[in-house]
Design brief:
- Helix content is about 30%, strand content about 25%.
- By secondary structure, the protein is of the alpha+beta class.
- The protein has 2 domains: about 150 residues, Fructose-1,6-Bisphosphatase, subunit A, domain 1 (Fructose-1,6-Bisphosphatase, Chain A, domain 1), CATH 3.30.540.10; about 110 residues, D-Maltodextrin-Binding Protein, domain 2.
- Helix 4 runs parallel beside helix 6.
- The model has no long low-confidence stretch (mean pLDDT about 90).
Length: about 280
């Protein structure tokens, strides 16, 4: 029997999430040395949204590890619909391989993301990244009230005062109409969240991420004191928690437009989004 949820410090949950992310990363790295089976979601002829055998095997492994310690907790994963603790206050959001198209093509820009929500609020996050600010794989992690860590050690964001322009992660490939920023598209929302937290990207914009794409990453971003905004109606508001319009709604169905990063970066992203919408009218 696991201890009552309220009695477990968030730091302990972060330690577990970090270990889970490391385990996932080790499985992913091992698979890079062999040919993996790949299928595609959607129609039989689809070439978009691939899913590999590694996506499935890693999620099975992560679910088993979480279940060993907290069998009553709920788990929402990208590849498996099973819900062991539906309606429980503690929900683990798991994306075994975020950036699968990159992974199966050997492009080293992908991640594995483990987030913990408590009553819908993202409290703990750990993201294993195929590369990092140290040019090697590692795990960025944080919990509410804590600092950003890399491989279990506190990380201090370094800013190069010589830079005239920063980088922004965009959902498309079009460049920004801004002399202060250049656009990039990595193909992994979890990776971009971690890179924003680490200071590698000044900001990022996600049009319709799923819960498992960003549940861990938003914790990293908030731990760094960066801005995190969600579009609601015609405006942008501070993001606080994952919730649906219907109180009885399933968090698995959550999806919402987000921007994150430094204030000047989020302002540029919101301006770019508004300009793109105006051009379509």
């Amino acid at each position: 029997m696991s201890p009552p949820p309220d009695s477990v410090p968030l730091k302990d949950f972060e330690i577990l999430a970090t270990e889970l992310a490391r385990v996932a990363g080790a499985e992913i790295e091992a698979a890079m040395n062999r040919t993996v089976a790949v299928d595609y979601k959607g129609t039989p002829a689809s070439t978009r949204d691939p899913v590999s055998e590694v996506d499935n095997s890693v999620e099975i492994l992560l679910r088993a590890r979480i279940g060993e310690q907290y069998p009553e907790h709920d788990i929402i994963g990208e590849e498996i619909d099973e819900r062991p603790g539906r309606h429980h206050s503690h929900v683990w959001a798991v994306d075994p391989v975020d950036g699968t198209a990159n992974f199966v093509n050997g492009l080293p820009l992908f991640a594995s993301s483990i987030g913990l929500l408590i009553d819908g609020t993202p409290e703990v996050g750990a993201v294993w990244c195929s590369t990092s600010h140290l040019l090697r794989p590692g795990v960025y992690s944080a919990h509410t009230g804590g600092t950003l860590n890399f491989d279990g050690n506190p990380m201090v964001r370094q800013r190069n005062a010589n830079l005239r322009a920063g980088l922004l992660g965009l959902p498309g490939v079009a460049d920004l109409d801004s002399p202060r920023f250049h656009s990039r598209k990595t193909g992994s929302a979890a990776l971009e969240c971690a890179f924003v937290a680490a200071g590698l990207l000044a900001g990022a914009h996600f049009l319709s991420p799923n819960l498992w794409d960003v549940a861990a990453g938003v914790v990293l971003v908030k731990a760094c004191g960066l801005e995190l905004l969600q579009q609601r109606g015609n405006g942008w508001n501070a993001f606080e928690k994952f919730e649906l319009a219907s109180m009885s709604g399933d968090l698995r169905l959550w999806s919402s437009q987000l921007v994150m990063g430094k204030k000047d970066a989020t302002a540029a992203l919101i301006h770019s989004d508004a300009a793109a919408r105006d051009s379509l009218r």
